[in-house]
From TrEMBL:
Gene Ontology MF annotations: S-adenosylmethionine-dependent methyltransferase activity
Keyword hit for Ion transport: no
Gene3D superfamilies documented for this protein: Vaccinia Virus protein VP39
Cited InterPro entries: RsmC/RlmG, SAM-dependent_MTases_sf, Small_mtfrase_dom
PANTHER family (UniProt xref): RIBOSOMAL RNA SMALL SUBUNIT METHYLTRANSFERASE C (PTHR47816:SF4)
Biological process according to GO: methylation
Source species of the chain: Rhizobium hidalgonense
Domain Methyltransferase small: 2-77
Protein name in UniProt: Methyltransferase
Length: 77
């Protein structure tokens, strides 16, 4: 399982899911606009929200699922 931490528009996690077929990708962000942007990015790439693709409203890694294989992030500039 992989976490796109502070996912923003979800571009990095979406790319990994689409190209590398990551088993499960979680997208975590505190901002509702970012969460909606991630939904739009996933939809534009024909990736459905299901058990293997989930968006989490959270403020930090404390809100992340356990037993992740990796945490990725593309922090703001």
């Amino acid at each position: 399982d992989l976490l796109d931490f502070g996912c923003g528009a979800g571009v990095v996690g979406t790319l990994i899911k689409k190209i590398y077929h990551a088993q499960t990708v979680y997208f975590l962000d505190v901002d509702a606009f970012a969460q909606e942007s991630t939904r739009l990015t996933l939809a534009a790439n024909n990736i459905a929200l299901d058990d293997t693709v989930q968006i989490i409203a959270g403020r930090g890694v404390i809100d992340a699922p356990q037993n992740l294989a990796a945490i990725i992030s593309n922090p703001p500039f």
